[in-house]
Amino acid sequence: xxxxxxxxxxxxxxxxxxxxxxxxxxxxxxxxxxxxxxxxxxxxxxxxxxxxxxxxxxxxxxxxxxxxxxxxxxxxxxxxxxxxxxxxxxxxxxxxxxxxxxxxxxxxxxxxxxxxxxxxxxxxxxxxxxxxxxxxxxxxxxxxxxxxxxxxxxxxxxxxxxxxxxxxxxxxxxxxxxxxxxxxxxxxxxxxxxxxxxxxxxxxxxxxxxxxxxxxxxxxxxxxxxxxxxxxxxxxxxxxxxxxxxxxxxxxxxxxxxxxxxxxxxxxxxxxxxxxxxxxxxxxxxxxxxxxxxxxxxxxxxxxxxxxxxxxxxxxxxxxxxxxxxxxxxxxxxxxxxxxxxxxxxxxxxxxxxxxxxxxxxxxxxxxxxxxxxxxxxxxxxxxxxxxxxxxxxxxxxxxxxxxxxxx
Length: 408
Ligand SMILES: [Zn+2]
Fold this sequence. Notes:
By secondary structure, this protein is mainly α.
């Protein structure tokens, strides 16, 4: 674990910035696909920056410069050469399955890596570097060392102190015998805050650092007499055991700290945000450059006349092929006569194409099945509308089709 004591400034990191620039300009990536350029950028960040980011916070000025170099490289293929970006820079930090390109946000990655140190402070109290830090600042290792900013602390210590609250949010407890977890100060009873945040008056001094076991009667119930008068939230009965209290990291499935889970928590991204649309795009079976093209189309960022107009690049939005007033993505790929011709199969070919398709829609319905039911129900609802004046929302018709397909 590298420990940097001196104050870090722009000068300290100039060397790193130069390295990133040198590395990126070493490639002539103009002819590489967008995704290839992303992978190269990620590898540069990985090899040059990760080590430094484990113990220090990269100054924002340097970080901005690195971001800019990466941005130029990703969009143009040449470091230092500006080119029109396809999507907002923030957007490419999103997970691929959430519509982004999965590039790591330097600032959040830096914080996630620093959180690893703080987790180590609690979880590996016997490792040498933790011992060095604790003895340097004459701290005892209790269940959670109080890391407070210190005016004369080393640079690393200050960095550690600053992000402590973020780490605390991710720490949760399985209560065993209640001898380790502090009743008022550790975050064990609510989702976000320790109980002291819910005290209606100052906590009696003799209670402040007491563990949970001290608040339990011999019969194993809460000793309400000790705190009921000033705790303003309800707490559940505990299932105590003889085991030690166990700490775990709330953001990972295993309960252990991972930089990835910390990064996701910091960026407020969860895997639940995944959109199956992007999953289909990224799992499309075929060459990478076509997958990237599908991503651009899905983002509605194809450089059509309408898109160029929106960016104040083109003078008009009309389609040069057919003269239609607005050439947007759907027009270019589907509605323009040039494209329409491709999708305009004759009746027999259209039906055959769909009936032969054994692709599973939503992993469940066979397309051929869904297709048959769909055209049948569309005709039914068309007749309902025409003869009985019944109108139905599209979502209702989709539900109807799904239900009837399920019955098959
Ligand atoms: Zn057209």
